[in-house]
Design brief:
This protein is 63% helix and 0% strand. It has 382 residues and is mainly α. It is globular and about 60 Å long.
Length: 382
């Protein structure tokens, strides 16, 4: 039955979009990565996973709604029902523009771009370009939504809302409102062409939730204090390991140790480059954090989570493969370390820091690299 087929494909599309939205927090479009991240969320709290899924669903739904075509003519599918074919087309199935099959681990061009973004000349073969701006076609938007690109900021919004307010109506309102605002902000930035090549990263999530955070402050619950490890396990190496694992979990806004371990497993499953760079960034930033910030924030993972993301982005997703080896190694490492004092500076303002250190540092490095490349090209042409 054509109607039943459309319903099944719709369900599959929705499930895929929600799962991949979780993986896109870590630049991964593979369904397995999304499932592992979802498992990491469930381990921390089933409520946390539920709110992440709600946020992803809201952002994805609003994004698709805003990109729907104003007029859509039904096309008769050969040997099939026109209504069923039209329904499948609206969901991105059977679209002639994107009908080529793609493996879950294949590399992805940014949404709406036919070439990889400058200045990178390559990147991780299993990592998608996260939330790249585009004046995308309707079919491209559906494909990107299915890959989770239009849902990860909403997923993080759900995490932020639940961890701040607990399983309350206030957290639900925050999640729904924040997810919708993330979709709106991404669309506005696309229309204004502010991010023609620069990745938005988690910028929309940071901007929306920094604004919403004080609005819901009256419903905050007291966070559980971080306790020191047992005496027999205490020591600088143990502290560094624990802080690094918690930093991996803090990407999802929690400090649960098992969640952090699952996140690291996810990165190594995605690829050796992804795993090594994310781990290296988390270790370097956490070690620096113990020195600059002190034991408590570093042990909670707050010093290292932006370093995790920054090293992953600059080392595996947007690397300068045409640069010297020393540059390719030092730039992601230096970027990860810069996030530590930047985290401290942002915290002094009283704002919710979220992943701003990662976003601002990565933007600064990519902008600098682009200007450097343009200067080299101009010098070679003269």
């Amino acid at each position: 039955m054509p109607g039943a087929s459309a319903l099944i494909l719709t369900t599959v599309w929705i499930i895929q979009a929600l799962i991949r939205s979780q993986g896109q927090i870590f630049f991964q479009r593979a369904t397995l990565s999304g499932l592992l991240v979802l498992l990491a969320l469930v381990v921390a709290s089933p409520w946390l996973a539920g709110f992440a899924l709600i946020g992803a669903a809201v952002q994805t739904g609003v994004s698709i709604f805003m990109r729907r075509p104003r007029r859509e003519s039904a096309r008769q599918a050969p040997g099939g029902d026109s209504r069923s074919a039209d329904a499948l087309s609206r969901l991105g199935f059977g679209s002639t523009a994107h009908s080529a099959p793609r493996e879950a681990g294949d590399s992805e061009h940014p949404a709406g771009h036919s070439q990889p973004p400058a200045p990178s000349s390559g990147g991780s073969h299993k990592a998608s370009a996260l939330a790249m701006s585009s004046l995308s076609t309707d079919a491209t938007a559906r494909r990107d939504a299915a890959d989770g690109i239009h849902g990860f900021c909403g997923a993080l919004t759900g995490c932020a809302a639940f961890l701040a307010c607990g399983p309350t109506v206030a957290a639900l309102i925050w999640t729904v409102l924040g997810g919708a605002l993330c979709a709106l902000l991404v669309r506005v930035l696309e229309r204004l062409r502010i991010f023609d090549w620069l990745p938005m990263l988690t910028g929309p999530f940071c901007a929306v939730n920094t604004a919403l955070n004080p609005v819901f402050a009256r419903w905050y619950r007291e966070p559980e204090p971080l306790t020191a490890p047992p005496f027999e396990l205490a020591g600088p190496i143990t502290d560094l390991v624990s802080g690094t694992v918690r930093a991996s979990a803090q990407v999802l806004l929690t400090d649960h140790l098992l969640t952090g371990l699952l996140v690291l497993v996810t990165m190594f499953v995605a690829g050796a480059r992804e795993g090594l760079w994310s781990l290296t960034g988390a270790v370097a930033a956490t070690a620096l954090g113990f020195w600059i910030l002190g034991w408590s924030p570093a042990m909670a993972g707050l010093a290292g989570y932006s370093g995790f993301l920054t090293a992953l982005a600059l080392g595996a997703v947007f690397p300068r493969n045409d640069a010297a080896l020393i540059v390719r190694l030092l730039v992601p490492l230096a970027g990860a370390c810069v996030t530590v004092p930047l985290w401290w500076l942002l915290q002094q303002t009283g704002m919710a820091v979220y992943t701003w250190p990662f976003v601002l540092t990565t933007w600064a490095v990519l902008l600098t690299q682009r200007r450097w490349v343009r200067r080299e090209v101009a010098g070679a042409a003269s």
